[in-house]
Write a structure and sequence with these properties.
It is built from 15 helices and 25 strands. The protein is α/β, with parallel strands linked by helices. The structure holds malonyl-coenzyme A (MLC) and adenosine monophosphate.
Length: 514
């Protein structure tokens, strides 16, 4: 049934007046709801004209634009599987994703066509299109030849809608398979939970290749028939300036930190705003409190991940259906969302009582179907009774609020992007003259946390920290590059010979805080 298609649910929420503005870019371009409907129909017809097998992946690495969002919606509409890729990824990273996902269609920026198409054709992809952030490229050229009428492809609730790649502590990235039902159930829950209402306007300033910008923000606005003010890149001054016309903002903590550095942020700047939402990384209590003092608004912090979309949220308001409390508490991520079961699990495979710290496990209609072509990995990450092991460590306090205290996965979250030390260490260890390395996350005033590399050279070899960073920069997405590198004589180890990363973290904890 097409009603299982997430696109159909989003389309059904479009306002009756299709000529009203759905998206307005910060440059002043306006797209009506009719524009969204017609353009996604044309793109969906183009995709369907390719006669792709069911479940085909459409891999997309393009700069943020309204047309890029339309391509996402068109992929859903056509019944294919959307696979977004961070624009910072370089060729080795893209080669892995394309090789692993075997997309039938790849869409890239016109400037990257040369190298991306080479990788794609080598991996067996039949169709490579381009899409620029200025409405150029072969995708739109081709789509204009197709009809602007399209019936959403019928699909089952557990058909795949998207694959999001996310790394593990060991091994290569895994593709989290999200279904139409996963995404739709989450969107419907959040619409209610966050009190979305008629007249809401969202400022969209996040990238659209991750859960936060692609699902939480876009679905949130569309399923409420709400206009978006669309910013291709986050600029704190511009966001503050446009708040006068908006009601809802979503951001990773770094965006809040950067806005707080702007003198124009005050109570008058936010007078039409209803809700500020933060997530993807821990929001420092200092940021939470300063925001309250400067704007009079209490940031609502929520918690989620690629495999599950949103899991918990602080309350929007007193609503007995959801939570006994209406207070948004800094330092917590709120309550499990309706339909989500969350438990804190101890080492002895038992649910822990209130206040005790353990591994967070979850179950719900939003929890993904598994990792793409990795059944063993999938099995490892689920308990026998069907709970997903998030890899986050936390507790539920006496009032029922969930508090994240750390991670059992060796992961750095930098400005809302995940960086896996094992991946960076792997690259450093391959470099000539390097014996071993350890990458750890340390506190950073802007990005929350950043990577620092500590390297030991092989006997007799000389390695330069700058050369290591330069070599990493040539190969990896820029946000993954450690902000500092130290070459040392030895790494701290425990009696088993394992590197004690906690000691390295302690040693470098004030590196960026002075
Ligand atoms: C940019 N840089 C970063 C970085 N972003 N370094 C570390 N961490 C980051 N996140 C570095 C670049 O490498 C570059 O360094 C320099 O900063 C300038 O790059 P830029 O691209 O111009 O940066 P900027 O535009 O300022 O980007 C910062 C940012 C961006 C905070 C706006 O990182 C961002 O949009 N973050 C949001 C990520 C997000 O949406 N996460 C949601 C994941 S979903 P150099 O040395 O090369 O100059 C998820 C689930 C959930 O986690 O719960 O939501
Ligand atoms: P990703 O794999 O990019 O989806 O990142 C998901 C991870 O981000 C989670 O497993 C958490 O570790 C982290 N995360 C998301 N939201 C929050 C939050 N509000 N507080 C702390 N960590 C968070």
């Amino acid at each position: 049934m097409s009603s299982n298609n997430l696109f159909s649910a989003l389309r059904a929420a479009f306002p009756a007046d299709l000529t009203s503005v759905a998206v307005e870019t910060d440059e002043g371009l306006r797209y009506s709801w009719q524009d969204l409907d017609r353009a996604t129909a044309m793109m969906a017809n183009l995709l369907q004209s390719l006669d792709l097998p069911a479940g085909s992946r459409v891999a997309v690495q393009v700069e943020k634009s309204v047309e890029a969002m339309m391509l996402y919606l068109a992929t859903l509409r056509a019944g294919h599987v959307f696979l977004p890729l961070n624009t910072a990824y370089q060729s080795a990273e893209i080669e892995y994703f394309i090789g692993n996902a075997e997309p039938a269609v790849v869409v890239c920026s016109p400037t990257n066509f040369g190298w991306v198409s080479k990788i794609a054709f080598k991996a067996g992809t039949q169709h490579v299109f381009t899409l620029g952030d200025d409405r150029t490229g072969s995708l739109l050229d081709r789509a204009t030849h197709h009809s602007d009428q399209h019936t959403p492809a019928p699909c089952q609730a557990d058909d795949l809608a998207a694959i999001l790649y996310t790394s593990g502590t060991t091994g290569r990235s895994k593709g989290a398979m999200l279904t139409h039902e996963n995404l739709l159930s989450n969107a419907v829950t959040l619409k209610d939970y966050w009190g979305w209402k008629k007249g809401d306007v969202l400022i969209h300033a996040l990238p659209i290749f991750h859960v936060h910008g692609l699902f939480v923000a876009i679905h949130g606005a569309l399923i409420n028939g709400s206009k978006m003010i669309w910013m291709a890149k986050f600029d704190p001054k511009r966001v503050i300036a446009r708040m006068q016309e908006a009601t809802v903002f979503m951001g990773v903590p770094t965006l809040y930190v950067r806005m707080l550095a702007e003198p124009t942020l005050d109570k008058s700047a936010v007078k039409t705003m209803r809700l500020f939402i933060a997530g993807s990384a821990p929001l420092l209590i200092e940021t939470f409190t300063e925001w309250q003092q400067r704007t009079g608004h209490t940031i609502l912090e929520r918690y989620g991940m690629s495999e599950t979309a949103m899991l918990t949220s602080n309350p929007y308001a007193a609503d007995k259906r959801y939570a006994k409390q209406s207070e948004r508490r800094g330092g917590t991520v709120g309550f499990p969302l309706p339909g989500v079961s969350l438990r804190v699990w101890g080492d002895d495979a038992q649910a822990l009582p209130v206040g005790e710290i353990g591994g967070i496990q979850v179950q719900g209609p939003n929890v993904f179907k598994g990792y793409w072509r990795m059944p063993e990995k999938t099995a490892e990450e689920f308990t026998a009774d069907g709970f997903f092991k998030t890899g986050d460590v936390g507790k539920v306090d006496e009032r029922g609020y969930v508090v994240i205290v750390g991670r059992s996965k060796d992961l750095i979250i930098s400005g809302g992007y995940n960086v896996y030390p094992a991946e960076i260490e792997g690259y450093i260890n391959e470099m000539p003259g390097v014996a071993e390395s350890a990458v750890v996350g340390v506190a950073h005033p802007d990005f929350g946390e950043v990577g620092v590399a500590v390297v030991i050279a092989k006997p007799g070899a000389t390695v330069q920290p700058e050369a290591i960073l330069a070599e990493l920069k040539a190969k990896l997405a820029n946000f993954k590059i450690p902000k500092r590198c130290f070459v040392v004589a030895e790494l701290p180890r425990n009696t088993m010979g394992k590197v004690q990363k906690n000691l390295l973290r302690e040693q470098h904890k004030n590196l960026f805080l002075a």
